């Protein structure tokens, strides 16, 4: 049964409930900082144009707090907070991936597994959580040392912070075998 808190949180518009075939989990603990939010906003917006994608959050914080931060940076309207996973769900980050997959499965009547779930994060812990929880991982690295750490942990793709929207869309397309638009 969904938490009463989650039913109060907004959901991204579904434009007539299109079939959802992939889930992108944004690890927001680093994402919701001013310098990062400005870079990621165009990526989130471009991905929101893909009707087959569900974008949500994964965070050690509570849901309303995450929504408030995302809203402050203009990111909330493209994220479905109702299917996200939060610190109240588990203290084990890998379990948060499965929690978000289950919520998305219930809401969208689709299966979400490693085949069609991507976790986006910037730390070795994010990579371990994604791989351990049943997701492919896009690591976002601030510098060469961070990139090496993410690669060593097993991220499927590592992008530099300055990869831009095109690079990010290409990485998502590669991992999900989506055609370019």
Automatic annotation (TrEMBL):
Domain of life: Bacteria
Protein name per UniProt: Uncharacterized protein
SUPFAM superfamilies in the cross-refs: HAD-like
InterPro entries: HAD-like_sf (IPR036412), HAD_sf (IPR023214)
Gene3D superfamilies reported in the protein's UniProt record: HAD superfamily/HAD-like (3.40.50.1000)
């Amino acid at each position: 049964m969904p938490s009463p808190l989650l039913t109060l949180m907004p959901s991204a518009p579904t434009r007539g409930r299109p079939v959802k075939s992939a889930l992108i989990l944004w690890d927001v603990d680093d994402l919701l900082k001013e310098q990062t939010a400005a870079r990621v906003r165009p990526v989130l917006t471009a991905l929101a144009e893909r009707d087959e994608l569900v974008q949500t959050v994964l965070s050690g914080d509570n849901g309303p707090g995450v929504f408030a931060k995302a809203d402050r940076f203009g990111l909330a309207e493209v994220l479905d907070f109702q299917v996200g996973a939060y610190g109240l769900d588990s203290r084990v980050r890998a379990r948060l991936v499965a929690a978000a997959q289950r919520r998305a499965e219930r809401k969208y009547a689709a299966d979400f597994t490693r085949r069609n779930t991507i976790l986006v994060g910037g730390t070795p812990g994010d990579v371990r959580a994604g791989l351990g929880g049943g997701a492919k991982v896009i690591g976002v690295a601030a510098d060469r040392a961070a990139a090496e750490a993410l690669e060593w942990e097993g991220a499927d793709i590592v992008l530099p912070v300055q990869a831009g929207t095109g690079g990010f869309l290409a990485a998502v397309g590669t991992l999900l075998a989506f055609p370019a638009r």
